[in-house]
Specification:
six-stranded mixed sheet; Dihydrodipicolinate Reductase, domain 2; 353 residues; 2 domains; alpha/beta; six-stranded parallel sheet; Rossmann fold; binds NADP nicotinamide-adenine-dinucleotide phosphate; globular
Length: 353
């Protein structure tokens, strides 16, 4: 293939799709045509990518004509149906949804960790990991290589944009309703009353609150998001027996997922050594100076590419255990950026042919 490959962005109008268009506009240009696809509701809308206005087309088999790589930034059920259709048309599908992540014939790729897996795609589909897993896994992987990971105990602090554009709109609407009333939150139920029925995609108000729930109910009381963190970490790291316990919590943050990590290793760790490993790790930035109020936080990480890591401490009770806090932009590394990086690996493979 002499000319640059053609890319399709399916779900170009959504929360992830919007960030994807920004990312495609700012990274090295490896694409010929970029085609924008969404539901029939958005057909005809014009969006800007690489400084040009491009008309959105409705998702259909014809929309994949001449496409080499298609990114799917759409709900699970849309990917589950359409990624295999795209693949049957000869397109390599890079899927951001949860539809294929645990399929043994679909690699789950984080380019900093297992880029070689992009070539192992018997179904013509490559999966992008869940946003909360991605925020922490780029920091966990280099520590695993150094110290040999045995167990993870995780607590997430997940932003509302993880539930799509509707999550962001819901939080802002709720914040407008509670703004200025300093009595709210001082009596049981009064925040619920102020917010009313406008809960959007969440089971409880997010304004002035945290909600220890993300995803859907799965076996033995675990949520789907908690099981994703366990299963995807195991698959990406190639550690099928890794012990992982996660508690996923939604917080009133627009964008930026954070995770408090307790990691147990096979060998002894020390905080300075871990800092050195993380300082040299691709996709990681260490921000760890609590004496001067420097911690990784969503308000600083939003709009940036790396995972920000800080609060690095060796356990007081176990020299093989490390605790740290990590924050990453769930719409960039947690979704669009990781997909763009996978697609760029494919672009160079296809361009070399
Ligand atoms: N938000 C995150 O932090 C995050 C992180 C990682 C992965 N993901 C995953 O990425 C995917 C997109 O998430 P999002 O947050 O961007 O969702 P979103 O804001 O709700 O956007 C959904 C996109 O899918 C399109 N779409 C919906 N139904 C469609 C259909 N039947 N045919 C064609 N297009 C359809 C929408 O097009 P219209 O505008 O035309 O309706 C829109 O472009 C989801 O699978 C999500 O789980 C999200």
């Amino acid at each position: 293939m002499a000319e640059l490959p053609t890319l399709a962005v399916v779900g170009a109008t959504g929360a992830v799709g919007t960030v994807m268009l920004d990312i495609l506009s700012s990274r090295k240009n490896v694409w010929g045509e970029i085609r924008l696809i969404a539901s029939p509701r958005s057909a005809g809308r014009k969006l800007t990518v690489r400084g040009e206005q491009v008309e959105v087309v409705a998702l259909s088999e014809d929309a994949f004509d001449g496409v080499d790589v298609a990114m799917f930034d759409v709900p699970d059920e849309v990917s589950a149906k359409w990624a295999p259709i795209a693949a049957s048309c000869g397109v390599v599908a890079v899927d951001n949804s949860g539809a294929f992540r645990m399929d043994p014939d679909v690699p789950l790729v984080v380019p900093e960790i297992n880029p070689e897996q992009t070539r192992n795609r018997p179904k013509g589909i490559i999966a992008n990991a869940n946003c909360t897993t991605l925020a922490m896994i780029v920091a966990i992987a280099p520590l695993h290589r150094e110290y040999g990971l045995r167990e993870l105990v995780l607590a997430s602090y997940q932003a509302v944009s993880g539930a799509g554009q509707i999550g962001v709109d819901t939080l802002h609407d709720q914040l407008a309703k509670v703004a200025g009333d300093r009595t709210l939150g001082s009596r049981t139920g009064n925040v619920r009353h102020a917010v009313g029925d406008d809960l959007g995609p969440f089971p409880a108000p997010l304004a002035l609150n945290v909600v220890p729930w993300a995803g859907s109910l799965k076996e033995a009381g675990w949520s789907s998001e908690e099981l994703k963190m366990r299963n995807e970490s195991r698959k990406i790291l190639g550690l099928p027996d890794l012990k992982v316990s996660a508690t996923c919590v939604r917080v009133p943050v627009a964008t930026g997922h954070s995770v408090a990590v307790h990691a147990v290793f096979g060998s002894e760790v020390d905080a300075d050594g871990a800092r050195e490993v993380l300082n040299g790790a691709p996709g990681v930035i260490v921000v760890d100076d609590p004496a001067n109020g420097e911690f990784p936080m969503p308000i600083d990480a939003v709009g940036t590419d790396p995972s920000w890591v800080g609060r690095i401490r060796r356990s007081m009770d176990d020299p093989r255990s490390l605790d740290f806090f990590v924050t990453g932009d769930n719409l960039r590394k947690g979704a669009a950026l990781n997909t763009a990086q996978i697609a760029e690996l494919l672009a160079s493979e296809l361009t070399r042919r």
